[in-house]
Write a structure and sequence with these properties.
The structure is a single chain. The protein is an all-alpha fold and 94 residues long. It has 3 helices and no strands. The relative contact order is 0.19.
């Protein structure tokens, strides 16, 4: 279970990196267009980034997330988020 948590932390750090890329892309678009939609994308990326930083920090520091059976659900949630963010970056880049 501790190996799975370690993998979860690594994937969480990957999600944070993807969110930073996405935030940079949205901020660049907001500077160009100044629309409510792009502001909403910036706010969305910031809040999701904050959630991922806090959650990954909790995984690193709190024992509460390391209970029996917690590793697998967290792993799948992080993997799904990683692929979803990758697709969002790909679509935004186009």
């Amino acid at each position: 279970n501790s190996q799975l948590i370690t993998i979860d932390v690594i994937i969480g750090i990957g999600n944070i990196c993807l969110l930073l890329i996405l935030l940079f892309m949205y901020l660049r678009s907001y500077r160009d267009f100044k629309s409510k939609f792009t502001f909403g994308l910036v706010a969305f990326a910031l809040l999701l980034l904050l959630q991922n930083i806090l959650f990954t920090g909790f995984l690193l520091t709190y024992q509460g997330f390391r209970g029996p059976g917690m590793g697998t659900p967290i792993f799948f949630l992080n993997i799904i988020e990683f692929f979803a963010l990758s697709i969002l970056i790909w679509v935004t880049w186009e």
